[in-house]
Batch of 4 targets.
Target 1
Amino acid sequence: MMRGLWSAASGMAAQQTNIDVIANNLANVNTTGFKASRADFQDLLYQTVQVAGATASDGSQVPTGIQVGLGTRCAGIQKIFSVGDLKQTGNPLDVAIEGDGFFQVMTSSGAMAYTRDGALKVDGTGRIVTNDGSVFQPELAIPAEAVSISISQDGTISVLLPDQSEPQQLGQIQLAKFLNPAGLTAVGHNLFLPTAASGEAITGSPGTTGFGTLMQGSLEMSNVRIIDEMVNLIIAQRAYEVNSKAIQASDEMLQMANSLRR
């Protein structure tokens, strides 16, 4: 069987994965805090027919070897954690991170998760939660009688209560960061979980060294660039097409070989 058939087939499978990643990026172009993914590929093993530097029959040294590649594979799909555009909403519970860092939330299963989605809500007990009910960490509760809520750039949350002229501080938002954020595992709901590859979370206050500041009344939008994704989609489609042509050419060559007569 011709090696080209299997090499081209691996190329088609790789481009299918590439298109899957691009499609997911485009589907989340309006998802708050979404981070685009990128598929990385690497070549497979090579069949060595002749080693470079080997001695030829006449005693001379062969300057180049003969290696035939056996295709490609997806080596990884990584998240790109560049900061997305900020959108002003005017909602006092919408918070965006300008710079590095993640919000910390506690999921219903009791696991600590991390997100860039700052579309916060208040539940029936006054606790600050995310859209799916995960409790914001450190846990803070907004008094029911609060007239206004203020979140400063350093994460300090203050509320103005009736009959008071000065705001009352409730606490401070803490951010987390990772040595290798690309190693985080996306679990949906705009949440990430740490892994051994990402390293342990490093926490700190907004505005301190290595951490971004907060902007109240704004949300970080998806960092997906539609033009880039459309260009990548065209490239992936053409690569898929040319690999299918390689399979067709290999098939036609085998057909001609099978039709030979003595």
Target 2
Amino acid sequence: MRAPAVVLFARSPEREAAAKRMRSGAPLFRAVVATWLRAARRHGAMPLIACAREDRDALAAIAPEIERGWIEQRGLSFGARVANAAEDAFARGHDAVILAAIDAPPHNLGRAFAALARGIAVVAPASDGGVNYLGITSVDRALLEDLTTQRCREHFAQLLIVETLTDIDSAHALDVARREKTWRALIAPSIASVDADTHPLRRATRTFHTRPPPIA
């Protein structure tokens, strides 16, 4: 069997920011991608980016020194794409897989990989009841196609639940996330509290900054 994999579901940082109506958000999402790539390699895992073909060049330019593999997203729903990507990762021979997105940074990965090595699943809850990342040693399509933290609690006989974080899907969520220690390492204190897209009068005076990725 091969080392674990981290499957990172991603759009280009620019498309991610546009989809969430966060005009100045691309640098933050770029920093999150870089943080995941570096954290995966630091923990001996292979990063696999699951993306649309149109996003590959932009994502390949992030932390280009980090070796990574690619999975082309396929499926009519997001849940189907998650399940298909998980199956693709295991088909490559990985013994465990962490499934993550780029709206929250990596955290508690040492504990997560240690649990997976013992056959214990791992979930990192999002504050809205969703999942920031999920660590598994096999695929259950029904779970992955309708993934929530509560369904993970009900599904797994053994489950490690790590820190809950805000997933950034709006300017309001960004305001909340900046109060969380893990996020503060990525979000500079001077970041706009409300995104310029939703408050045009602030557009000319607010600037988005990011700090270097933290150690996960």
Target 3
Amino acid sequence: MGWLPLVFLGVFGLAVVPAAQGYIAGPPITLGHVVNWSDFVMLARVDEVHRDRGGIVFRKVRDIKGKWPTDIVRHAFNPTSGASKSKPPLDAKERAYILDWAEKGKLAVLFALKSHGMAHTYIDQCWYGSLAAGREKDSWGLWETICPEPELLRNFCCGKPAELAAALDAMIAGKETVVPVVGGGTTEELRQGRTRIRELRVGLKILEFEGKRVPDSPKQVIGNKEPGEKNTGDSKSEPDGKKARTGEKNSTGKKQEESKPDLVGTVKAVSSDGKSFTLLRPPSAKRAEPTPIDIEIGEHARITAGNEGARLAVGQTAGVWLQKGSQNVARAVHIGKPPPERKPAPEDKGNRSPADMPEKKPEGSKPVPENKKQSNEN
């Protein structure tokens, strides 16, 4: 099966992994959101188990969303790998649980985001994250597992993979349904049958979990379509954080209300990797001198000029919209003049003082000739 390359994955480490890892290091909050984000979702079956080498071979059963590019998917389990500083590595105990679980014929559900080569996998009572690890031609069949995702047991699903697949079918059909999730306790207690299980309502439009809204998403994909095909899903709402651009028309043909940027100034410097820049803010009533501020460009931030994408350069005037709760992380940057202030509504004529009202001549009156005016005065 060509398994040998997986043995050496740990040698190479994750030095070549892209920095953008929001799909794993900051995963979607709800099941509906991860379905929206993912290009591919499929139901797979364990085909081979290599416990001595630390690997599992999955074979596709069916596509749930999109079309997974390969029928065979290999997962390698390296207990020293980690997605980022915010995620612990897949420790030996969790690795042992996954490999002990794996038996030929068992089911799993796989989700993947094409742009970053990232995946979430669900097996019985276990979620974990992976990164594509193969060469370009076979990267969708070769994955390095990097971290456990235990929090997803309480806000995605903790039941059987077949239950999850059935729920995903309903969601993609535009319906809401329920899935079992952990209602309290630890992952170990769940696997021992000692935790409370509750039902959680899920759907493509349910983007909030226990008062938490979903983070900015890289895109929105709804419906069982290949990337690039027209979206035929029934949901037209965007994930939280994706607001209409200034001047963009809505479904009624009217322009959206123009939003005011949080910061406006001149680009003083741009980092070599393009992930941050220095904005020089002009003087104000509170600041007598121009003030520089370092801005970090959010993972999925849009940089535009007019209606087109653009790149930052020193000397440009820029408006910056910040991520919610942040003082220096941009969710959008617009190059050029900031949107104009909204003009106040015209005054109500009924509230105008008599002095402001134009002089009104009596209806039907005719102008008096100049010669008659003089005779009347005499």
Target 4
Amino acid sequence: MTRATPRSVLGIAAAVEAVTGLLLLIVPHLLAKLLLGADVTGVSIVIGRVAGIALLSLGVGCWFGRQEATGGWALAAMLLYNVLVTLHLALVGLGAEFVGVLLWPAVVVHAVLTVLLGFAWSKSR
């Protein structure tokens, strides 16, 4: 069995976030409905697309940042992002006001990425 390296873990996380960013840019309505069970209109679509641009940028930056031997700052940025998103989405879900079919799976994916990135970051130090 192959061991996960900081580079491979960062690559997976970068790809997940870049795809999510693209989805927010292209179909913010669908992603909001699946994650939060809510319809978005007006300024919410604009904000969602700006978030999509940020996620796409983070994903692309970390994708190319993984080329460094340890992942460096790209690894730290992706770890921080996943820690905060895991906590935020879990709190949203516990509040039960905005819960879509993909909210808890998204929490799990981000929690797993947080653990993997945390191990990768500790190995790179």
